Prior knowledge:
Elements: E1 4-8, E2 14-19, H1 20-26, E3 30-38, E4 44-49, E5 60-62, E6 64-66, H2 74-86, E7 92-105, E8 108-120, E9 132-138, H3 140-149, H4 156-167
Parallel strand pairs: 3-8
Antiparallel strand pairs: 1-2, 3-6, 4-5, 4-9, 7-8
Amino acid sequence: MEEQVVLISENDEVLGLMDKMQAHENGILHRAFSVFLFNDKGEVLLQRRAADKYHSPNQWTNAVCSHPRAEENYLQGAHRRMKEELGIEAEITPKFHFIYKANVGGNLWEHELDHVFTGSYTGEFNLNKDEVSEVRYISMNALDEEMKSNPENFTEWFKIILQEYKHHL
């Protein structure tokens, strides 16, 4: 069965459910979350999306980004996806939320009310290779330089979310 997303108003009022692909094809506003994880050196964790992902394959992005299910709140969805994608559990706290819309290629759009969480993690990973091909930590300065020199290596939403994150520091 196709994964569904929770359609919402700009005030986060639930309007219904829709197949994830249909929502992305039509750029319809839905719930999402993003997780930024840092190691004990203050470096941010990046994941490289698996080669078989239906959009943005092989691109680097933040630790976890996905959609809560109808029966989940944002935090529950974030914990579920950390386990499903990275094979980890980590303490995370809400940082901010905002709405954005990004063309992710292939006539697909991310139009999301994104709740951003932050946390720390320095342990081992058990990657789900259907979702994530690799992970790495990088300093914010090195990340900025890499994004300037090779922006095509990063997901469109990560570029937007990272800028928003910096405004909330």
